[in-house]
Each structure stands twice: as C-alpha cells, then as structure tokens.
Amino acid sequence: MGKANNGTAAPGAGSSLADSPQWQAFARAADAARLDAGALKTIEAAGLCVDLTMQWQSPALEEAGRALLEARGLAAARDALFEGGPVNWTEGKPAWHTALRAGRTREAPDGQDSESVREYARMLDYVRALDKAGDYSSVLHIGIGGSDWGPRLAVQAFGGPAQRRQIRFVSNIDGHSLHDAVAGLDARRCLVVISSKSFTTAETLHNARAAIAWLRNGGVRDASAQLAAVTANPSAARALGVPGSQVFKMCDWVGGRYSVWSVAGLSIALTVGAEVLIGMRAGAEAMDQHFRQAPVGANAPVQLALAGLVNCSVKGHNSLNIAAYSARLLHLVTYLQQLEMESLGKRVAGDGQPVGVPTAPIIWGMPGTDGQHTFFQWLHQSEDGAPVDFIASLQGHPGSPDAHRMLLANCLAQRQALLRGKSLEQALLDVAHIDDRERALSLARHMVHPGGRPSTLVVMRQLDPRSLGALLALYEHKVFVQSVVWGINPFDQWGVELGKRLATGIERELAVPVSAGLVDWGHDASTSYWIDRYRSHAQAPRPRHAGLPGVAAHL
Fold it and tell me: How far apart are CA 132 and CA 247, in angstroms?
C-alpha cells in the first residue's frame, strides 16, 4: 500500500456507470426479466457445473449484459490482467496471480525460469526434503488475512487422518490465540512458518517473536533453525532470525488475498502434501483458460458476475449467502469474504466520483446443513431475504453414501423452496384438519413463504484439489468482472489503513503511566474514556498470570 497512482489510467475513468445508457438498458432489462426456472441454464467450466437457472433471465437481459460488458471494456481489462498490466491502477502494479498457476511470467528471458517459478520449486524441494527426513511433527503457521485463510481452507478441505503433520494457526493478536495454539505441542518437533507479504504486519510480527520465545523456552537451542518465512521482504525475515535458505520470496505483484497460489502454500504442502497445491493450481489454471476463451453467454465467471450485478445493483440485495454443502469447506465463507469484500468494498470509481449504484454485497454463511438450522428461516420468510450461492458435489465420503444423498437432497430442496415459496392456498391445505377456520387461516398465514428468491448452484464431481482451485478462481474472476463494470479497483485496500494508523497512536497512549494523570488525548469522549480506564486497570497491581513458559512476557 501507500504508493499513489503513477499515471496509469483507471479503467472507465470519467465515465459514470449510473448515467451510462448501457447500464440503464441493463437495469431496465433486469427489472423486466423473469425468475421462474423455466429455462435450464448451466455452464460447464474447468470441471465445475454452474447452474444459473434460478437467476433472473430473459433474452433482453442477456443482450443488455453483453453490451454493458463491451461498453465497460471487459475484454481489454481481462487481457491486461493476464498479461501483467497495471490493473492495480491506484498503485501502478500488476495483479498477476494467474501467472503463478500458469507457471510462467514475462519477467525472465526465453528459456529461463522466472524468480517466482524458481522460488516455488525451491519451496517444494524444501518440503520434500523435510518429508524424506521425517522432520517435524507439527507446524505453527503465523499469518493473518490472505496469509492465513488460504492455508486454513485447504488444510480443512484435505486434512484428516492422512495429514502429514499437525498444524495450528495463529492469526489474532489476542494473546489467547498463541497460548491455545502451542498448548500440547513439542517445541523441539515444531516448525514455525511466518507468512507475511510485507513482513511489517504488527499482529504477525508480535506473534512471531512470542513463538520464537516459546521455542527457546521449550528446549530448542537454535530457534532460528526451526523458522521458515514466506514474504516479499526477505531482508526483514532474515533480520528476525529466519535462515536465508528457509525464506521463500513472494512477488510484489501478487495481492495478499491471492497469495495461496504463491509460496504462501508452504504450510499446505507441509501438512496435506505438495500434490494438493499442484492440483489446486491446475484447477485454477483451467478456470483461467475458460475465463479467457469462453464466449460471454457461456462464460461461467462472467455470467455469475452479471447475476450478482442484477441482484445487488438493480434488485437492491445488500448481501449474498454462501451455502457450501460440505463440512470440509468450513472456511470457504471467510475466504470469500476477504476476496469479495476487501476487493469490492469501495464506493468510488476510477475518476474518484461515486459509482452511483449499490456495490459489494455482504458475504456471509456457513456449511449446509448447519445453516438450515441457523439462518435459513430468515432466507425463506424475512421481508427481504438474500440471493444464495449453493455449492455441492456429486460424490461425498465413500463410506457414507446415504449421508451424502441426504446432504444433496437438502441442498436441492432448500434451493427449490427459496424459488417456489409456499402460497396461502397451499398452506391452507396443510391446516385443513383444523375445524376452527379462523384459527386455521391464522396459522396458515405463518406458513406462507414468499418465494421468488434467486440462487446459483455450483456443482463439482467431488471435492478434490483441482475442483477447489477451479472454484476459487471462478470467484476471483467473478469479482474482477464486477469491478470492471463498477469501475473500481479490486486490488487495493485503502480502507484497511486508516484504522491501522489510528491503532498505532492509541497503543502508545494506552501505555502512558497512570502517574502522568489525566491527559487530553484529542479523541472523542468515548475513546478517551476507555484509554484512561484501560490505563487504570492494566497498571493496577494484580496476581501474576500462570501462562505458558516463555510466552506470557512476550504477549
């Protein structure tokens, strides 16, 4: 962050989306479209089947969408994305995660591997050497945001009894996070992986130093030997004590929320195998090729994006529910929250003016069928509801075919119920046995489902590394298409920076001795009150906390 636009033109700069005739035609077509599931609309892409049948449809909407994408310059923007152009135009950088999974970039002469390719191969060689030697029984992964969610997602999806090493994740600065993570681990058999693109992230560095103290107090003579780092700032990692041979360099042109495709997959390879990383990248590369080559009407990311534009910017739905019918996709929602909300959570276009239409729905959810017992009541019968992306696979656990049949039946039934709803006449049939007609009518009204709620169904043959990679790339490209239409930059995150800067100052103020007396902090009344209250509490005498050896003093 922090580098201003170096003169690179923003796509669509000076062109207000809301005022454009193509947008107005698209909005009119969306308002007139039907939501009746009368015409099957499925797209096969990179081993996935994307079913958009239960989204708003009409020939006029399809044509208006094509004209809108042409007017907003999608083709040129997509070429720039894949060719390493400065698509992160506020910082003048590429966002070249697609090059990582293709295993090639322009940064090296013909016939030579690029630095990113060499670093990835070096990382895989490191993992294979540790596997061959039987080194380490556990991994302590320290990172936050994009350095955390990808590894969490992949390990949860493909871990289990066959997992090669136990892994614990530490992301939160809350002291309980590290204390709980290291509990029960043998420090002498634990590799600490520190993942941070900048290697300046306050939470990650604080937790890393505490983890090093834990290693030393756990009997490790050379704590540095048990450190590995993933970063675009190798010198900072070496300064912390990580051996240079165990520092793996990320490229500066890969955004944090896309880092799972880079050497940031180190912890994935260490715990569930290098073949998982290789499979994920292959699936993502297949989706990349589909996105580049498929025509608009048969392009899964493009059509998913257009459906989202209708629901958010035309129909006014301010959230999107993700319902993955797989217990192993526990962390998919949080991964997509960062991908979508950090990328699209912006209100101004390339010219600095408001976009003029609603952007960036809230992403939320949890795996089915747990969600059915949590928030599906709201989805079915609240005043507004929300569109839903259902995600399922045709094949489940081989030892539980009956369970998977029930799981898939619930997925299909919930989706159908959201669309069809239940009329008062249908509800009255359910209470026909009640003799008191007024009571029956009153009860029936509570059973009415409005229906007319749009959804998409994404189906994989089975959850494997290739299908997960394709799924993540599907959503990446959906986000990119929507950013092009809205005219916003999906690769920066200026909104994160303000709170970080304020926190630095407040942290210093919290440490001011109580003996200094009352201080005019220059904050609002509430913030000043809690600074003073914390100082009084934190600096009052209290019993020593019995924490883990060598950790408490560093938290």
Answer: 20
Annotated active-site residue in 373, 433, 446, 545: 373
Distance of CA 323 to the CA centre of its chain: 14
In the structure encoding, which two tokens stand for residue 77, read together?
């923007």
d(CA 441, CA 315): 32
Annotation says 373 is catalytic = yes
Active site residue 97: no
Q: What is the pLDDT of residues 363-388, one digit of tens each?
A: 999 999 999 999 999 999 999 999 99
Query: Among 45, 61, 137, which residue's Cα sits nearest to residue 454?
Result: 61
Q: Please tell me whether residue 390 adopts helix, strand or coil conformation.
A: strand
* Tally of CA atoms within 13 A in the half-sphere of 341 that contains its CB: 17
Count of alpha carbons within 13 Å of 465, Cβ hemisphere only?
22
Catalytic residue among 176, 397, 500, 537: 500
Q: Which fold has domain 103-272?
A: Rossmann fold (3.40.50)
Helix (H, G, I), strand (E, B) or coil at 167: strand
Class for the domain spanning 29-93+280-321+330-367+389-394+464-486: alpha beta
Instruction: Give the pTM.
Output: 0.93
Judge whether 436 and 302 are in contact, CB under 8 Å.
no
- With b for 16 or more beta-carbon neighbours within 10 A and e for fewer, the 308-318 pattern comes to bbbbbbbbebe
The domain limits of the chain are 29-93+280-321+330-367+389-394+464-486, 103-272, 496-554
Annotated catalytic residue 342: yes
**142 and 192 Cβ atoms separated by less than 8 Å:** yes
Tens of pLDDT, residues 306-345: 999 999 999 999 999 999 999 999 999 999 999 999 999 9
Q: Choosing from 203, 340, 342, 476, which is the catalytic residue? A: 342
